[in-house]
Amino acid sequence: MVEAGEQLGSQPRKRQKVDHDKAARIKKFRRGDPLATSKIPDKKLKGNLRYQERLANEAAELAAKADEWLLPGLAGALEADGMERTWRFKQDEVVREAEVGAARKVFDLSLTELGPYSVNFTRSGRFLALGGRKGHLAVMDWQRGKLITEIQVKETTRDIQFLHNETFFAAAQRKYVYIYDRNGVEVHCLKEHVEANCLDFLPHHFLLCSVGHPGVLRYQDTSTGQTAAAHRTRLGPCSTMRQNPWNAVLCLGHAAGTVTMWAPNMATPLVRLLCHRGPVKALAIDRDGHNMVTAGADGQVRVWDLRMLRPRHAYFSRATPDRLDISQRGLLAVGAARSIQVWQGALEHKVQSPYMRHDVYSGRLHDLAFCPYEDVLAAGHSEGLSTMLVPGAGEPNYDSRVADPFQGRKAKREQEVAQLLDKLQPDMIVLDPTTIGQVRKEPKQVQEEARLAALVAERTESRAALEKQAEKKKMKGKNKPSKRHRKKQYTIIEEHKVDAKGRAQKDKEFGKTEKNAEDSLPDDAPRALAAFYQKGRK
Amino acid sequence: MRIKAINRSEEECTRERSQDLQKVHKNLDPSLHPLEKATEYTRALNAAKLERIFAKPFVAAFAHDDGITCLAKNPQRLNSLIAGSADGDIRLWDIPSRRCLRRLVGHTAGVKGVAATPSGDACVSCSTDCTVRLWRIPAAGMQPAAEPQEAQAALEFHGANGFRAIDHHWQGDRFATAGAQVDVWDHARSEPMSTFRWGAESALSVRFNPVEPEIFTSTGSDRSIALYDLRSSTPIRKLIMQTRSNAIAWNPLEAFNFTVASEDCNLYTYDMRKLDMAACLHQDFVSAVMDLDYSPTGREFVAGSYDRSVRMFSYNGGHSKEVFHTKRMQRVFSVRFSADGSYVFSGSDDMNVRIWKADASAPLGKLLPRQKQTQAYNQALIRRFKHLPEINRIVRHRHVPKPIYKAGKLRRTIVDADARKLQNVMKHSKPGSVKVKPARQKKIVGQEE
Lengths: 538, 449
What we know:
The complex is a heterodimer.
Chain A: H1 20-30, H2 43-69, E1 77-79, H3 91-97, H4 100-103, E2 108-110, E3 117-121, E4 127-132, E5 136-141, E6 146-152, E7 157-162, E8 168-173, E9 177-181, E10 186-190, E11 196-202, E12 207-212, E13 216-221, E14 227-232, E15 240-244, E16 249-253, E17 258-262, E18 271-274, E19 280-285, E20 291-296, E21 300-305, E22 310-316, E23 323-326, E24 332-336, E25 339-343, E26 356-359, E27 365-370, E28 376-381, E29 384-389, H5 409-421, H6 444-468, H7 481-509, H8 513-520
Antiparallel strand pairs in A: 2-29, 3-4, 4-5, 5-6, 7-8, 8-9, 9-10, 11-12, 12-13, 13-14, 15-16, 16-17, 17-18, 19-20, 20-21, 21-22, 23-24, 24-25, 25-26, 27-28, 28-29
Helix pairs in contact in A: 1-2, 6-7
Chain B: E1 2-4, H1 10-13, H2 36-53, E2 58-63, E3 68-73, E4 80-85, E5 90-94, E6 99-104, E7 111-116, E8 122-127, E9 131-136, E10 149-151, E11 155-158, E12 165-168, E13 174-178, E14 182-186, E15 194-196, E16 203-208, E17 215-220, E18 224-229, E19 237-241, E20 245-250, E21 257-262, E22 266-271, E23 280-283, E24 289-294, E25 300-305, E26 310-314, E27 320-324, E28 332-337, E29 343-348, E30 352-357, H3 369-385, H4 389-396, H5 402-427, H6 439-442, E31 444-448
Parallel strand pairs in B: 6-10
Antiparallel strand pairs in B: 2-30, 3-4, 4-5, 5-6, 7-8, 8-9, 9-11, 12-13, 13-14, 14-15, 16-17, 17-18, 18-19, 19-31, 20-21, 21-22, 22-23, 24-25, 25-26, 26-27, 28-29, 29-30
Helix pairs in contact in B: 2-3, 2-4
């Protein structure tokens, strides 16, 4: 990086224009620090790595260029003039000032009878699933106002979740979790997911996760139908669950104020964070996996640095927040009772005032969800569904291979196949996904410990095996006590042999015998005669 | 207030007519593509598995009436192959249409060597009936011929003893034969232009250097490899090894390097300027290596062995990267790489010339640009992740016939036992007293000038 020259004395030197913007863009696409190749002793490897670095740099520069010039859309923004503040604007004014196409996305659905509604969007943001507590399930193409399917399951439904696309959605009903088709047909009844409170879907792994009253976290592979893992959290009923989109780790909020992070591989949580004094009411994680926001019954809304697992700052809210959500561009929505507050830039630094505010016209807030790739926040409440325009929330430029709001039928078919081909295995879920493919040399200490542990295990196993074939009392024929005794002695000798080997290994590793021998052995003597040079030997 | 919100119009983001191409939007932001490494790893794993699934290297077999002893490729045409068999019959094959164009009849004993002239319209063959014959060979026409025509030799050269091998120079009208001695002939002369002899041994194979016009090598039955210069009358240098070398080939792109196929189941690559140690040792065969040929890229070579298999090695790789075998293929006596580097020809004792794909999983025929891109992507993925254990296991895995597998296992046990015993000897003797020669130098007995 070329730094701008300092102006010392009276000689003005030519300044080199530093394009911070371009450098930041290149850094974004570089994916890690450049490798120092000068110290590598192996010439072939060094040459290869330098070539790879050159390719990576070129790729980052080209990507930065494309990012700067070729992206069609610009992010939304709301700015106030003069003394006005953005959080004073009512939604009506905002909608009036906005373009017709954007204003059309703000609506209220009045569904008063069937209970507070849970809201879920597909990854592309085109389809919306509504799940009313009294069993009203609906899927709609919300921007065009088209209802895809609507069913009444006549049971308490606590959560709703789309699977890999809009063809299937899962509903956490009174006892079990059910999966429905886009025609409203019940396709599966997942009897193992008992009394689920929350559902989530890991799109890259095709894992449907549920946690509920028994406090058991279950991972179910929806492409093969196998249960990938079932972990007993042992922390009581859980009703708050979110996935970290960056590493596909699930974060659960518990009644004791702890947040635990889980992966299918480990039966114990990867991380345990004590976040609040009192139950954790809501959780949200941003797209890059940098920040996590938790809301507790103590009224605190804390922001955590997820990479370092440290708290950043906290906000206080008088009303206990019911729900949190973070948009693609890092806007935080806090829903408490009836009011929704949207905060901008609140994750990196502590901000004094919100960005926008809105009160739901009636009823109590139940669920909040930002629509991907749109500047819209959907709020499910006890009287139905309301949407709110939040300029700057959504990512303006989508990638067709990832999620396309205007996907055709053929593209949808192809994408489903591509998703299945790229399906990741559940044991690949780790806290830091960049470690895959890295070569880590284990320190010698760790290798030794592993070897010793294996040895001890082998010894105990052989001892157990010997005990197992302990002497059987013969009932048929001769069974003289002297013979039995001799047999017993034989097994003892075997055991001693095993033990002796173990002792020799142990001595060797603590450098007892061999080291002493080596110390006293003169240089010109052959090693076979080491025994004669031992100290204390006459 | 100033407000701007995302407002996408469907008309702008999708195509106008169904004849138009679909609009594809790209955003390379890493935040939109989480879990990239895991996805790449999964794709690499799938690519490795698919590569093994589609690995079907055998293409075709051409039948002769007796075991095939020698092969030659035409330097001017990709579609023709000349194969000589042990009953004196030489056949000219048109490979794409899989038919025999000509049968060159004339030799009364087994044909030991065949080579094509640089112009591509003639070939020379040598036999144990003490003659070398020159034949005119036609190009393959478009119309299918009913029966392969028979043809007579255009020229005949007589020698005193039977010939073992022949190689034609890549420029002009000279060719060299190996037999009781190494002779260099010209088309216009009925007697050899020059004769090279060193010691009382016979020469087994001969090869001209593809870049230096005057240099060629030969292997002899006294376990030697000799370097000759056409301008001088005697050989310049001789390298003696522990076992006899059956064949020799020059690297077409690094023409100072040559590889020999030895009786001790290994192949050795030497730099002709520095013969005191081999540049590389190639191991994997379990019986004598009979023939080898380099790819025109110079990055790999193929070798055939007495153990009924054909293996492909990287030019600097110690172990084979591909193995070709069939139940019906018996002892392989000659192999050739096709001139475009895509196919391998092997002639064996079971009277068949077999054609194999050099890249076993590559599809034949013309690929669409998108297919080519997918192939390139899959190969790049495998290259990036091939050191990881799961993928390494799949990429390296080759089925090998049971006798070869068992023999290889036995050899490894013996080698490991020898290494262990050597370690013990070294441990119990004075440090520095036991001198270990590197494997690349162990088999060299000496050099002579």
